[in-house]
Amino acid sequence: MTGSVPYYGGRFTPAQAYAAAHPSPPHVPPPAAQPPSQASHDPMEALEHLLDTGVLTQEEFDELRKRVER
Questions:
Q1: Given this model, what pLDDT does residue 3 score?
Q2: Residues of the chain with pLDDT under 50
Q3: Which residues contact 21 (CB under 8 A, 6 or more apart)?
Q4: Which of 24, 34, 35, 61 is 20 to 30 A from 6 (CA-CA)?
Q5: Maximum distance among all alpha carbons in the chain?
Q6: Predicted local distance difference test score (pLDDT) of residue 18
Q7: pLDDT at 26
């Protein structure tokens, strides 16, 4: 006996047949975001980069910009 796996006499199980007929699309990793320039340590440039890449919303950006400008 093969344990809890059903044995079909060397044939595919229904799940294996379905998986063979319906292959999943290949995994494509998202493109890597480019970090802000390391030569500049300008916090506003870093905040703008985070806003441009979608990490921060406009409201979060405005709040953090106020903190940086003080």
A1: 59
A2: 1
A3: none
A4: 24
A5: 75
A6: 87
A7: 87
Which residues of the chain form beta strands (DSSP E)?
A: none
Residue keyed to tokens 């506003």: 44
Structure-token pair, residue 65: 């910009």
Amino acid, res. 1: M
Distance, CA of 24 to CA of 5 (rounded, Å): 23
With beta carbons less than 8 A apart as the criterion, state whether 43 and 68 touch.
Answer: yes
Task: Of 56, 50, 58, give the one whose Cα is nearest residue 34.
Answer: 50
Residues 6+ apart with CB under 8 A from 43: 68
Contact by Cβ (8 Å): 46, 53 = no
Q: Could you state, in order of their start, the residue ranges of all structural domains in the chain?
A: 35-70
